[in-house]
């Protein structure tokens, strides 16, 4: 395993870490025994950082992480998130009293004394402009309930707003071959300011595995079944905002990236790791095989400058115009 520093926190995290949305819920059927086996396997392979949220399975993924990391709390870092249990548009949702309650509830489920990285979970732009939530987080840090804090954002604009606060230590962004906009300004600026970058949806909801055909039907409780048009939450969280059919069409044009590499998925993850500004990727998983497949990215051949340019052109010429919603 390779490790990278999380901004200027002094914390080193595995460059391939894992997100736990899928094992919490909203990605189809789950099996706790299989989920715990997969978590154990990841830790055995050197993974020392996991991302979760209080709304993933209504806290269930936090509880699973507590079981998987029991006795290893000192060397397995956990990042969790808050705010989406309430009304994300209401300033009171970000008050000290509410955030402290969210934080203490997560600590109880995680069975920890402090949260390593506490993230605001895709708040509105207005909340970020107001900035009072950062004062609340500063207070929780002083109280020892959290060690560092960051923000999970939907757009480049929101990310740049967060960077204006010197105590924001990380940004969690949607970034993959289909979503390259952060490369232009956000990632260089974050690097300049010593802010870590966690990459979610590195495989664009599975599109960049290359395994789907346009006639595939997702399970009823899988957000890829019900959020393609952004009816439940931000459209960019599902298929990178491309829509399923367009995403499959575009992924078929990218099959070449797997040539000389482990797989299309490991190649797509490798492309992200080849960006020097990235701290870690946090792909999801539901079983041990998916963990192992994602870890293949570590050993996958890096992209040449020529290949990088080809993928940059592909994004600008074939992808960019089809992305729905602000990003």
List its salient traits:
327 residues; alpha/beta; TIM Barrel; 8-stranded parallel β-sheet; two-stranded antiparallel sheet; 13 helices; AKR; AKR2_Oxidoreductase; oxidoreductase activity
Q: What is the multimeric organization of the chains shown? A: single chain
Classify the beta-strand content into a percent band: 5-15%
The dominant shape is globular
N-to-C series of helices and strands: EEEHHEHEHEHHEHEHEHHHEHH
The helicity comes to: 25-40%
CATH superfamily: NADP-dependent oxidoreductase domain
The biggest sheet, with number of strands, parallel, antiparallel or mixed sense and barrel status, is: 8 strands, parallel
Q: How many individual helices?
A: 13
CATH architecture: Alpha-Beta Barrel
Short overview:
This is Aldo/keto reductase. With 327 residues, the chain is α/β, with parallel strands linked by helices. The protein has helices at 21-24, 32-44, 60-68, 96-110, 125-130, 132-142, 156-163, 186-192, 223-226, 244-252, 264-273, 288-295, 305-319, and strands at residues 3-5, 12-14, 18-19, 49-51, 77-82, 115-121, 146-152, 168-174, 196-200, 280-281.
Report on the structure:
Residues 16-314 form the NADP-dependent oxidoreductase domain. By secondary structure, this protein is of the alpha/beta class. It has 13 helices and ten strands. It has a single domain, classed as Alpha-Beta Barrel (TIM Barrel). The strands form two sheets. The protein has an eight-stranded parallel β-sheet, with helices on one face. Strands 1-2 form a two-stranded antiparallel sheet. Strand 4 (49-51), helix 3 (60-68) and strand 5 form a beta-alpha-beta unit. Helix 2 crosses helix 3 and helix 2 (32-44) packs parallel to helix 12 (288-295). The longest helix is centred in the N-terminal third of the chain and has 15 residues, at 96-110. The radius of gyration is 18 Å and the shape is globular. The two termini are 32 Å apart. The mean pLDDT is 94.
